[in-house]
DNA sequence: GGTCGATTTGTGCGCGCTCACTTCCGGGAT
DNA sequence: ATCCCGGAAGTGAGCGCGCACAAATCGACC
């Protein structure tokens, strides 16, 4: 910077003004400085700026399992949104789904002096289980919990798809097709998304006065969906299955096929997420679509607002999902 | 830090020594400092350290489309490897697949003073097309190009799966099953992976003295695989298809099914990647497995070596893929 | 021509840390 | 008793920048 100032024949402060688009610099001077910057291939030193301003222009992302379709897509959406908002993004993944791991990831991020944190990992359950919460992060650190459990931590701003509504959409769709009940392959209970989808499914069933079967446990993977699917396929009473995500639905589809139960002829299957492959599965999967890009933008927005305000705020945004009907569901054949 | 020093009754330098595990601190003193640090909830300021040492402890990741299975998995693998090596990771995604976007992403990373860069985006084609290369990044910035084209830029260290070998494995597997030739649904030619897989497929065919059909273009998506699949399904001469990745294979599987061509009865299909869902597709997909975790570790290793050496180095690592035979391939029925 | 106010530019300090160097202290060899 | 040496601790400078304030410059107006 000193060199640039020298070459342009101005003081370092003027260079600083040019770099930061300060208004009171004569355009002629500005041009001279810009030329000098270009000539010297000058690049501002972020560390120095961070030190001086106490602002890192970085937001942290706590992830857990980015091999899942949802989270991996969210990373992308958030990076985009962050860039547009003028922030860098630094990621820290939790090794496992427990308090120490998540705490450690957050610590790493805080150590980096991120200005705010967005968490994609399902922290609620683990944390509240120990009577702690994301609030252990000092209140001046803005945070947004994507898909966290708002009941467990109402103080933490949250952005999520309306999982219960989506599950309701899926379940009612199956009920409308004449199914006497709908079975459910659930995600891991540590994930609020999983619990909310299960609750939505259950509520829809109860509202229709239908029996609520026991949900089968899954871990979001196709493998677990397959295991659940085998159990379901063995029961001739099963005619409709709502899966907590598309990947598990893939497993269920496979299990049904192996058992000789046609989809949608004998059994209807619905997923959740609408991954890009969903239309090309066999059969094309009816599923609940979430708008990940929108969620990413929303969460960055919420974070930026907090950073600007300088304090943690509360606020929740739930985006409405859509049901995408394809060929894995059909009316119950009598 | 000053406060900690004060509380512990030592100088700031001693605190610094404790923080950095410097050996020459009496264990008694060290204990006192540690206690003070804990009491004050002291957290070192990375910006200040970075400014003083000129080392940011951060590596940058240039991504492009993390909704693809491979890249999304790699992000995860690299984050893990980086953490183990004591680095933070900051990500920057290229908006599009062209020189300005990738340059911009790299600029953002450099602006952040990352110590090294790993690129997951397929930069080679675009860059060399303009007679430029990753080397535009000053030579003192360590870089690793995952899956870049080594012919185009032999100077840049590279880590990748041996795509040609994998394609050969897949193709020879189909040839051994008696197929008279193997068709290919290729990824976008901008991706060296796509070109290498195509080259491997072609070479295997030629080595067996079989005709080389025209490859069908795809963009890695199931949608594009489906489009290619429809064309392939319409041609009764097609009995074996090798797809550039699993997602396109999903599309091909769907197209074959719609056209009433049984897989593997009438047509055999092979993918590439071995995504977690592959065993649960219909039919379970024969595919080429790559070890992403290993690739992530390798690339971090290569990067760390360069950082330690202080100069860009050359070096290439190709990991050998495996063929995983499942049920989407079978012997040609006469 | 002088004065005032607005605009533009410069000065010096400090952000929190590490580095190079100095100082201090105690123990063993001479 | 002297000297030296090595481990343990302290001192001060400076990394590159932005902030608060001071200084200079420029116009416009009386």
TrEMBL record, chains A, B:
Ranges of residues in domain HTH lacI-type: 1-53
Any Pfam family hit: LacI
GO MF annotations in UniProt: DNA-binding transcription factor activity; transcription cis-regulatory region binding
Database matches in PROSITE patterns: HTH_LACI_1, HTH_LACI_2
Key words of the record: DNA-binding, Transcription, Transcription regulation
Keyword Cell division: no
Tree of life domain: Bacteria
Record has Transcription regulation as a keyword: yes
UniProt-recorded name of the protein: LacI family transcriptional regulator
Species of origin: Dactylosporangium siamense
